[in-house]
Amino acid sequence: MPRKFAQKYIVEDHTDGVLRFYFRRGKAKKIPLPGVPGTDEFNTVYYQALRGEIKIEATGPKLAGKGTFRWLCEQYYASAEFKHLDPKTRQVRRLILESCWAEPTKPGGSKLFEDMPLPVFTAKAVRALRDRKADLKEAANGRIKALRQVFKWACLPEVDLVTVNPARDIAYFKSGSEGFHSWTIEEVEQFEKRHPVGTKARLALDLLLYTLQRRSDVVLFGKQHVRKGVLHFTQYKGRNRKPISLEIPIHPNLQFTIDNSPCGDLTFLVTEFGRGFTGNGFGNWFRKRCDEADLPQCSAHGLRKAASSRMADRGATEHQIMSMTGHQTSKEVTRYTKAARQKVIAKSAVNLLADPDIGEENENKSVQKNGVV
């Protein structure tokens, strides 16, 4: 039978053979008390607990209340749709959603969005989460995109957790940015001068420039992908959901660079340790090669834009460019090539400004001036 103590709320426990004392008021969590009753160290902690000065934090992961925003996200994490995303995409989406969980529903308030019941998680809530990142427009747009995907999944007939996607009609912020800097011809030539054929940096440049592929693809290219002068591969991005397979003829300039460069066994590009690059590792490495060429504004991704723009500048159609980049719609290609298209169209449009009669009159004057009747 438990002993009774002169001081209130003291309980003892010796289930493991060691006698311990705790402070416990009602159904609150137990607070361990050092030593034995009556000692100074015991009394110090006891009276702190009695005055409510000691708080015991809950341990273990928080359990989401059923029907809340956090609960819905956790159901989404367990879905096949989420599991089929690329690992990097899953990681980023989790970070975005969980940053939304931690937002207070009202500035300075104690209630968080993670505990918001789904019936009241409306477009107004989505707009509030977006606007909290108004000074970081890409981050704000990332929240909208992530929320759209969660609720789009939840609205599926076979899932049927919600009936409305509150993020569907919330507009993205216009970033006002052109994205990655698109290399100019002069910048490409400057890089080539600093990194001639035979260097790993030049091989990397030409693989990016003449294939129009992302760095995540370029780091995987190897001799096994080449058959009869054609590069055969499936793009890394979206390979688990909507795989896109491409066949791209190898440009003579690229073939010359490959033939005269040190290449790995399984990949053309290898690290100093003879291993293949990761996408991020390659991006960081290539960034340093750009710095060596005094091109701090340039990046690997900018070459994809530059090559697309160069093709547009030379009259390539959007579908021709898409056959190289692997884009399934023209939206992104149009963004890449907007400036180049403007130059091509303006060049043909300027001829429409001239009046045919004026043109003929000027031609006659020119003939007379040169003494031809």
UniProtKB/TrEMBL annotation:
Keywords: DNA integration, DNA recombination, DNA-binding. It holds the Pfam family Phage_integrase. One of its GO terms (molecular function) is DNA binding. Coiled coil: none annotated. InterPro entries: DNA_brk_join_enz, Integrase-like_cat_sf, Integrase_catalytic, Integrase_recombinase_N, Phage_Integrase. SUPFAM superfamilies: DNA breaking-rejoining enzymes (SSF56349). One of its GO terms (biological process) is DNA integration. The keyword DNA-binding applies. PROSITE patterns: TYR_RECOMBINASE. Residues 178-349 form the Tyr recombinase domain. Belongs to the 'phage' integrase family. This is Tyrosine-type recombinase/integrase. It comes from Mesorhizobium neociceri.
